[in-house]
Structure formats: structure tokens, C-alpha cells
Amino acid sequence: MKPFLFATIIAVSFTHAAHLSMYKRLPQPSQAIEETLPSIKALKLLSLNYKNLVSDYYWLRAISHFGSQRMHKHHYPNLEALMERVLNLDPYFGQAYYFTGTALTTTGNDSTTDTAIKLLRPGMEYRPNDYNIGILLGFNLYFNRNERLEAAQAFSHAATIPGCPDYIGKIATRIASESTDPRIGLLLIDNILENVVDDKLRAVYEERRQLLQLEVELRALQAYIDRFNELNGRQPDSLEELVQTGLLETLPSSDPLGGSYFINSDGKASTTSEDQRLRVFDPATPRAAQMRKEGE
User: Fold this and answer.
1) Taking the domains of the chain in order of start, what are their residue ranges?
2) What average pLDDT does range 88-97 have in this prediction?
3) pTM recorded for the entire structure
4) Is pLDDT at 59 greater than 90 in this prediction?
5) Mean pLDDT, to the nearest integer, of 116-122?
6) Percent of the chain, pLDDT > 70?
7) How many CB atoms lie within 10 A of CB 163?
């Protein structure tokens, strides 16, 4: 027991000393914000046969970093690097995959989402019985990158694992064969919300759900507007006219964000919450155009 304890103390102390050495070299203005961590290669070498212990050290640091209100204001600048070290040192760490697929995609930085996807991919091999990893990978590929083929493959993989929700297989089929649909995103977010216990993460995904629900309702209203145009040869003057003609039973009192729906000057369903609206793979956006070009 003593040799094991001695080796463990040396491994952890060596890693911590290396981290402190790197930390002290940082310029003072950035010291408390973005850190320079020991390389993954160096950590694997220094941790000897105790990679799990070092992984746990960085895992605790990642949880603490994400829970810091100060770091929240700076969009968690160290979270990406910390989670890379956690999962490279212990690729069987199930809870870390779930944290990566959710928390790491809320920073507002494209690179962290790319890192989350990169870390989730091997997770399906290391944890073949964990369907949540495939669902999270598929969700991020579809929702954040519009990579539908790989997203469908991830969902299909998850659907074959016992215990996976039945609708995941149906989602995989729809993503592979149909155009993007915000209702699919709602199903995915609902599945994620069932497993989220962190209040901060829950708030992020509940907000995303509201934004997707807004897209669903706007598309439904647009369908009624288009139908009115087909029947009458003109655009309706207002949404109320859809109710008056019987096409629409009633108007929603507000959109999911608290705004009001109306018909804009182009004859399209719109909302006063336009500045908060989530553009779900809008073909007019440069990002969507780039992804579409890459997929050709």
C-alpha cells in the first residue's frame, strides 16, 4: 500500500508543480483569466500509470471554472483546455463526456464547439453502451454545424443501444432525408433537459428551446399566410385577417420570448423578438452558405 501511495503522491505533486510553474510565467494581466496549461503529451508522460488521478484533478478544476461567476463573464476561457486534458487522460470518463457535450458548447465560441465534437467522437468507442454520447454528438453536429449525414450516423448509433429513447432512430432517418426542421431540435433539447441537473446549463437549454419554439411558430404562421395568398391572390393585411377568414383559429397572445407576431413589409411572418431570434440554418447566412458549399 505504501509504494502505491508514495507513487500517487509523486505523480500528483509533479503534475501540480508543472502546472504552477507554467502558471507563474503568465503575464499578470491575463493570469487570472486565461491560463497556459501543461501539454497533454507532457501530462501523459508525467502521470505514469496514474492518468485517472490527474484527469480527476483537471475535472475538479473544470467544474470549479464553470461554476465561477467571474469566468462566466469571460465565457469560460479555460474550459476547453481543461476538458481536453480530462478526456485525453481518461477517455472512459462518462460524466465528462456529458459535460463536454453540453457546457462546452455554451461559451459562444465556435472553436469550443468544434472541440466538443472532436472529444465526443471517440467517446462512442470508449463507452459503447452510453447512448447519451451519440445523442450529444448528433445534436451538436446537427444543431451547431448542420452536418446532417454524420449527425444521422451518431443518432443511428445511439438508437441501437438498449435504453435509448425510441424517437432517436426516427430523428436519424429524418435528418438524413429531409431539410432542416426546428421541431427536431426541440425533441433533442427535451431529451437533454431530462438529464441536466446543473441549473446554469438548464437555463441555457431552456432558452434554446424557446428560440426553437419561436421558429416553429413562425413557420406555422407563414404557412397560413401562404395559404391565404393562394386562396385570395394577395397577402393578408394582418394576422388577424387569418382568424377572420377561418384559416387560423386563434392568434397566440405572445411569442415564446414575450414578443408579438406580425406580418412584415415583405409579407412574411415576423416578431418583435427579431433581435433575439435564432436563425436555424438560414440559407442566407454566410455560415450556412459555407457549410452548404462544404457539403457539396
Assistant:
1) 10-90, 227-295
2) 96
3) 0.62
4) yes
5) 96
6) 81
7) 8
